[in-house]
Amino acid sequence: MPNAAALAALDKEIAAVRENIRELTEQAAAYSGAEDDALTADRIAEQESLLAKLLKEREAFAAR
């Protein structure tokens, strides 16, 4: 059985990354300019990659 505290910590980290993605998306909508768009897109992609990694980790952890 997975450690409940570790699973809760992972869920908290997943929620934080999702919030980061939401905030970055809002910022992207508010800013204009190619340079800002590229930087924001890179940051969103980085956060989405991290989210995918964390979700995979959570899935594996919960399956134990």
Give a description of the structure.
This protein has 64 residues and is mainly alpha-helical. The protein has one domain (4-63). Helices cover 89% and strands 0% of the residues. It is built from two helices and no strands. The protein has helices at residues 4-30, 34-63. It starts with a helix and ends with a helix. 5% of the residues are buried.
H and E string: HH
The major pleated sheet works out as: none
What is the C-alpha radius of gyration, as a whole number of Å? 15 Å
Number of domains: 1
Give me a quick take on this structure.
This protein is mainly α. Helix content is 89%, strand content 0%.
What topology emerges from the helices and strands here?
Layout: H1 4-30, H2 34-63
Key words describing this protein structure:
mainly alpha
